[in-house]
Specification:
Elements: E1 18-21, E2 29-33, E3 45-49, E4 61-63, E5 69-72, E6 83-91, E7 97-109, E8 117-118, E9 122-128, E10 136-139, E11 142-143, E12 156-161, E13 168-170, E14 176-179, E15 191-199, E16 207-217, E17 225-226, E18 230-236, E19 243-247, E20 249-250, E21 262-268, E22 275-279, E23 286-290, E24 301-310, E25 325-333, E26 346-351, E27 359-362, E28 377-382, E29 388-390, E30 396-399, E31 414-422, E32 430-440, E33 448-450, E34 453-457, E35 465-471, E36 483-486, H1 493-496, E37 497-501, E38 506-511, E39 518-527, E40 535-545, H2 556-562, H3 569-607, H4 634-638, H5 675-688, H6 738-744
Parallel strand pairs: 1-7, 9-16, 18-25, 26-32, 34-40
Antiparallel strand pairs: 2-5, 3-6, 4-5, 6-7, 8-11, 10-14, 12-15, 13-14, 15-16, 17-20, 19-23, 21-24, 22-23, 24-25, 27-30, 28-31, 29-30, 31-32, 33-35, 35-38, 36-39, 37-38, 39-40
GO molecular function: beta-catenin binding; cadherin binding; calcium ion binding
Organism: Corythaixoides concolor
Pfam family, one: Cadherin
Length: about 750
């Protein structure tokens, strides 16, 4: 068998790549015809598949299934699809594959149908003024959608417009913009607007433009300059912290930048530092101000030399300024100034108790307005004790009245007054001076013994001492130390008593011999340490008590009582007399009020036309109420002779039923007017009756019930108190009413 070599593919079925130009307008356009070598009697069926046929984009390509011709049915865009890869198939009429599928590649050929595009419409760049030639500022950049492997996408850059200066150039290939010549000056041209062009086909194809904006950055190449060489201003004297005026400058550099901001300095004409100058941050002008009050009388004109420069140093290439210095002339205007007390406060001294009219001092002020004729007058602005009098023209102060210690107007021994000085200008001005007057202490008070009494044990040694003290209304050095001693007029006291110093304000009184208990009065002399010293004789009342074992008084009550011996006899008499007088006045007032009430009540009884005896009713039985008023017939008391005696004796209505009758009936009095005797006889008969209880014993009655709608009898006079009633007249009714008179009278 003959060896079989590799199988060879028929050339007719191998299809080379097919190129077609984009934007081809004659459609349909025959691209290629494919053909299979395996012809069948019935023919071959051709087909293609892939993008542009049965895949997106659909319908771009088609094939004649009997002839194998492939057609272009739509315009192509290389920027969307630069090539299509299809599969070609050959089948018999029964659908059986005759050939293996083969590749059919269609390449879209580029055309220059896209202009270049800049990445932005406006490009921004910055460069400092005065930059050297060749200083690059920025780079512009453009793109082209055409095939980068063809001239359709080869770009070239150029500057179409930059004014007449020609300060910049652009690299045609890279698009970098640089300076080409010196002389960039921000103060001349601050911003450059350039028109940049990009063209494809190496500069011969489609074009597009953009704008390049270049800002010049400022440098301090211009010094500040005064607008003129001299400035004139005015200011009032005594005005501090006020603005006098402005000096104006001009700077060509960028406003608001450190290259523009000015700094001012006063070089000459102000050795005392009376002025300051600062920069107005908004206008860059110099503001001259007064730092210290000016005095027209001392200096009325100033001529200042002021310099100006920038906060940031000038560039070495900057020219020097011919107007960096200026002269400022300031005139000080004279105004009315207030008087001035050169010594404020003024301190003087006056002796305590100085008599009225004593000169104190002359307190005057001076007027700073020496070039004006003015007169000063004075007045007291503050004199709380009304102690001073002031000469309104000379300013001399004198005492008006005596001022002594202690006083509520003194503060630590000082008296404070305010003096007002006023000129006669229009309007007038005034000043206040403080006058501090020290009231010098005078020794005009002697020490006073405190306390003036005490209790000691009458035995020498332990317990036989008493601590003495003293006070002085004077102030140091006219007070303590105090000196205590027994009166030399009574030398016998030194045999029983002694006084020794304890401290500067106290001394110790000691018993030298045993003394009997009782009160003792010791005359003492107390002296202070003032100049001259003051001495006073005083009486010390000492109560001597029985001594216990520990040196204390045995009878504390006696000691406490006798401690009051310190009160002088005169004072005790005054106290006792006052107490007695008060008691007498109180007794007289009470007697007068009591007599007045008694006379009032007796007058009421005498003025009454009714007989009080008509109101004596018999209420010895319960339950009758208002209708049961079986009263005694008072006519029997008035005229008993008109009624014959009864056949049977009178019965006691309050007696029990089983009780016996009285042994004898009551007889009316022989004299109808002697009613008291008649009543007394009836009472005596009742008292002697043994069958009934007396009237003044408690009687037992039946239960009346839980209450009554009627008010109690006690409510009739509930509005009156016992203090309003006078029951002394009960004693005049006889011995039977003496008990009531004792209870209520």
């Amino acid at each position: 068998r003959q060896h079989e070599g590799p199988r060879r593919v028929k050339r007719a079925w191998v299809i080379p790549p097919i190129s077609v130009s984009e934007n081809h307008k004659r459609i349909p356009h025959l691209l290629v015809q494919i053909k299979s070598d395996k012809q069948q009697p019935g023919g071959v069926i051709y087909s293609i598949k892939g993008p542009g046929v049965d895949e997106e984009p659909l319908g771009v390509f088609s094939i004649d299934k009997f002839t194998g011709k492939v057609f272009l049915n739509a315009m192509l865009d290389r920027e969307e699809n630069d090539r299509f890869r299809l599969k070609a198939f050959a089948l018999d009429l029964g659908g059986v594959t005759l050939e293996d599928p083969t590749d059919l590649e269609i390449i879209v050929v580029d055309q220059n149908d896209n202009r270049p595009l800049f990445r932005q419409d406006i490009f921004m760049g910055r460069v400092v003024e005065g930059a050297e030639p060749g200083t690059c500022v920025m780079t512009v950049d453009a793109t082209d959608a055409d095939d980068p492997d063809t001239d359709n996408a080869v770009l070239r850059y150029s500057l179409l417009e930059q004014g007449t200066t020609g300060m910049f150039s652009i690299n045609a290939t890279t698009g970098e913009i640089c300076t080409t010549r010196p002389g960039l000056d921000r103060e001349t041209v601050g911003v450059y607007n350039l028109t940049v062009q990009a063209a494809d086909m190496s500069g011969d194809g489609l074009t597009t433009t953009a704008t390049a904006v270049i800002y010049l950055e400022d440098i301090n190449d211009n010094p500040p300059e005064f607008t003129k060489e001299e400035f004139s201003m005015e200011v009032e004297e005594q005005a501090a912290g006020v603005d006098v005026g402005k000096v104006f400058v001009h700077d060509k550099d960028l406003a608001g930048s450190p290259n523009w901001l000015a700094k001012f300095t006063i070089l000459e004409g102000d050795p005392e530092g009376a002025f300051t100058i600062r920069t107005d941050p908004y206008t860059n002008d110099g503001v001259l101000s007064v730092a210290k009050p000016l005095d027209h009388e001392v200096r009325d004109r100033f001529e200042l030399t002021v310099s100006v420069q920038n906060e940031r140093p000038l560039e070495p290439t900057a020219p020097a300024s011919p107007r960096a210095l200026a002269t400022v002339r300031v005139r000080v205007r004279d105004v009315n100034e207030a008087p001035v007390f050169r010594e404020n406060p003024r301190r003087v001294s006056v002796l305590e108790g100085a008599p009225p009219g004593t000169p104190i001092t002359t307190y005057t002020a001076s007027d700073p307005d020496t070039r004006q004729l003015q007169t000063l007058t004075y007045a007291l602005l503050y004199d709380p004790a009304d102690w001073l009098q002031l000469d309104p023209h000379a300013g001399t102060l004198r005492t008006k009245r005596e001022l002594l210690h202690p006083s509520a107007f003194l503060q630590g021994g000082w008296y404070i007054a305010l003096v007002l000085a006023r000129d006669d200008a229009e309007p007038p001005l005034s000043a206040t001076g403080t006058l501090s007057i020290e009231i010098l202490e005078v020794n005009d008070h002697a020490p006073l013994l405190q306390p003036p009494a005490g209790v000691v044990c009458g035995r020498p040694g332990r317990g036989g001492t008493l601590l003495l003290g003293a006070t002085d209304d004077d102030l140091p050095p006219h007070a303590a130390p105090f000196h205590f001693r027994l009166s030399p007029q009574h030398p016998q006291l030194a045999r029983n008593w002694s006084i020794t110093r304890f401290n500067v304000t106290h001394a110790v009184l000691a018993v030298l011999v045993e003394l009997p208990p009782g009160p003792y009065s010791l005359p003492l002399l107390l002296r202070d340490s003032g100049t001259p010293p003051q001495e006073r004789g005083q009486l010390l009342n000492v109560s001597v008590c029985h001594c216990g074992r520990d040196g204390t008084c045995e009878d504390g009550v006696l000691a406490a009582a006798t401690a009051g011996a310190g009160i002088t006899l005169g004072a005790l008499s005054i106290i006792l007399g006052s107490i007695l007088l008060l008691l007498v006045l109180a007794g007289l007032g009470a007697a007068w009020a009591r007599g007045r009430r008694r006379a009032l009540r007796k007058g009421l009884l005498q003025r009454s036309g009714d007989d009080m005896r008509d109101n004596i009713l018999n209420y010895d039985e319960q339950g009758g109420g208002e209708e049961d008023q079986d009263a005694y017939d008072i006519n029997q008391l008035r005229h008993p002779e008109l009624f014959p005696p009864r056949a049977r004796p009178l019965m006691r209505r309050d007696a029990p039923l089983s009780s016996a009758t009285p042994p004898a009936p009551r007889k009316p009095p022989s004299s109808p007017s002697d009613i008291e005797d008649f009543i007394n006889e009836g009472l005596e008969a009742a008292d002697r009756d043994p069958s009934v209880p007396p009237y003044d014993t408690a009687l037992i009655y039946d239960y009346e019930g839980s209450g009554s709608v009627a008010s109690p009898l006690s409510s009739i006079v509930s509005s009156l108190t016992d203090e309003d009633q006078d029951y002394d007249y009960l004693s005049e009714w006889g011995p039977r009413f003496r008990r009531l008179a004792d209870l209520y009278g």
